[in-house]
Amino acid sequence: MSILYFDCFSGISGDMTVGALIDIGVPQEYILNNLSLLNINDEYEIEIKKGVK
Fold first, then answer.
1. Which pLDDT band, with edges at 50, 70 and 90, does 41 fall under?
2. For the chain, what are the domain ranges?
């Protein structure tokens, strides 16, 4: 079992959280399936693509 610890002393936004989870390898399908359980599908839009900074 792996444990992920967030040390958010000044907060973290939802988009940053989802981006971090994708970046560490959480499958996109897992994230999308679990977000759909919130029953707020009309409240957000997600576009997942690779980028370079």
1. confident
2. 14-38
